[in-house]
Amino acid sequence: MQTIELSRLTWVIVPALLVVVIQWQWSLRPGTSLNALARMVIQLILIGYVLNYIFAAEHSWYVLATLSIMLIAASWIALRSVAEQRLQLYPIALISTVSVNTLILLLITQFVLNSDPWFAPSVVIPLAGMVFAAGMNAISLFAERYFAELNRGEPIATARNIAFQATMIPITNSLFAVGLVSLPGMMTGQILSGVSPLIAVRYQIMVMLMLFASSGLTAAMFYKLLQKRNKNQK
């Protein structure tokens, strides 16, 4: 697979900065995007060094610690859309993310891929990143839309249904588009590395099903726990 030189990598910064310029011209707080872009670069560079160490060490406790940090961070970031309720909702977001997505991760790594050893860092951590991020986005989308609909005066069941439909739009669009409009990340990466497209397709089907399940089940679990909390508070 071709190695990207740092000097060439800088070219992709140009269109990203154009988006920031548009946000600035339209008075849409470009500082948030600049902060997010800077954090993305720093975090990826740091995780590159960390993963090099973890992959070389191949120790189960390192993998479990990494997964724990990912779950804690994902649950916190998921509530950016409802920042005013972040502290109150964090336990619900964390339980939802952990209970649903660790089970999906176990299913994929131990039964579909038969990972050997069970904690193989190069298998478990990248897949965990995908499934945890799907759950994170599901909570973020569901929570924002659910509370917005309640504030508009919609009944709980209506707000739930609208929020769940909104949550599933991105992954459903991806299901319709994959293979026709897009070749998603895992499939593209495998093809670029020389893997047969027919094999890459199997992995991508696994990933798409994994992300669909994570999105729907995490949102549903978040709602159920939220309702249980509200009942206990009455």
Which stretches are poorly predicted, pLDDT < 50 over at least 5 residues? none
Output the number of helix runs. 9
Helix proportion range: over 70%
The helix/strand class is mainly alpha
Instruction: Indicate the radius of gyration in whole angstroms.
Output: 19 Å
The percentage of residues in β strands lies in: under 5%
Helix and strand string, N-terminal first? HHHHHHHHH
Strands, total number: 0
Model description:
The chain has 2 domains: 57 residues; 175 residues, no CATH class. The protein is globular. It contains 9 helices and no strands. With 234 residues, the protein is mainly alpha-helical.
Tags for this model:
234 residues, 2 domains
The gist of it:
With 234 residues, the protein is mainly alpha-helical. The chain contains nine helices and no strands.
